[in-house]
Amino acid sequence: MRLVASTGGKGGTGKSTFAVLYTLRLLREGKKVLLCDCDVECPNDHLLLGTNLHDGKPIYQDFPRLNAEKCISCGLCSKVCKENAIFWVKGKPPIIFEDLCSGCGACWIVCPQGAIEKEKKPAGEIFKTRISENLWLVTGISKPGISETGPIVREVKKRAIELARDIGADVLIVDTAPGTHCSVIQALLGCDKAYVVTEPTPLGSHDASLILELLRIMDVPSEIVLNKADAGDESVIRNIAERYGVQVTVRIPYSEELIRAYSEGKLDRVVDLL
Ligand code: SF4
Ligand code: SF4
């Protein structure tokens, strides 16, 4: 089974649309596909596929809880917290502000007294949807207010891989969030290839270079998908491609017919037009 990511440094370039179109193309080739929506703060692959999400199962994450009886008020936990989620006054036990906590675990690792215990709390939901005989969709959604979604993405992807193995999928497509942050890194880990979806604008080229640099560091082979290819200056993307030694392998033209088919939800028609 191959793991292929659809990603992009910038939001709004058509990353999710490409993930769904690529899925439909593979289905036409007779492949069994699992599409995993790892854009957990704003998943929308189900909307593109015209399906609803039902029967979500909770995803839990560890958060810190202070056991004041064990605490010796040394303040170490507050010093290591990068999120400034621990307020400490000399001689007093710390106060943990849950809203700021990312659940990174540094405080319970560093505490010499074991005074910070781990407590599992719901951090999101996972949905498994069978769309057709050869297509499954796994969707993760983070709870509003969760500041670090990397652990949720890790869990969603782990369960998607398990399901993909169970159903004998040929390809698992991972639709990442935009950007280069922790949750994107979690989604890209272990992928055999990544498609970087971008557009021929200065913003597109800047953000494409950020994600290509990340993919280079992670040693994930990548190719560029140029969306709205003829609507800007294509050379800005060709220059980036040359710098990172990658190919522009997919060009999606800016066509009224394509946009009309897309906005009417006729994705099969879009695949015909590409
Ligand atoms: S788990 Fe991490 S972010 Fe949360 S309070 Fe502890 S050190 Fe800070
Ligand atoms: S590191 Fe542990 S003992 Fe020290 S202040 Fe924090 S909770 Fe208390």
Could you give the topology of this structure?
Layout: E1 2-7, H1 15-28, E2 33-37, H2 45-48, E3 57-66, H3 76-80, E4 86-87, E5 95-96, H4 106-110, E6 116-132, E7 135-142, H5 150-167, E8 171-175, H6 182-188, E9 193-198, H7 202-218, E10 222-226, H8 234-244, E11 248-251, H9 256-263, H10 267-273
Parallel strand pairs: 1-8, 1-9, 2-7, 2-8, 9-10, 10-11
Antiparallel strand pairs: 3-6, 4-5, 6-7
Bound molecules: iron/sulfur cluster (SF4) (2 copies).
Characterize the structure shown.
The chain is α/β, with parallel strands linked by helices. It has two domains: 208 residues, P-loop containing nucleotide triphosphate hydrolases (Rossmann fold, 3-Layer(aba) Sandwich), CATH 3.40.50.300; 47 residues, Alpha-Beta Plaits (2-Layer Sandwich), CATH 3.30.70. It has ten helices and eleven strands. Strands 3-6-7-2-8-1-9-10-11 form a nine-stranded mixed β-sheet, with helices on both faces. It has a two-stranded antiparallel ribbon with strand order 4-5. Helix 7 links the parallel strand 9 and strand 10. The protein is globular and about 70 Å long. The mean pLDDT is 92. One iron/sulfur cluster binds next to helix 3.
The CATH C-level name of the largest domain is: Alpha Beta
Strand order of the largest sheet: 3-6-7-2-8-1-9-10-11
Q: How many domains comprise the coordinates?
A: 2
Distance between the termini: 25 Å
Mind telling me the CATH superfamily name of the largest domain?
A: P-loop containing nucleotide triphosphate hydrolases
Largest sheet, in brief, is: 9 strands, mixed
Fraction of helical residues: 25-40%
Count of individual helical segments: 10
Overall geometric form: globular
CATH architecture assignment name of the largest domain? 3-Layer(aba) Sandwich
- For the secondary structure, the number of strands is 11
List unreliable stretches of 5+ residues: none
Each distinct ligand? iron/sulfur cluster
Which series of helices and strands comes N to C? EHEHEHEEHEEHEHEHEHEHH
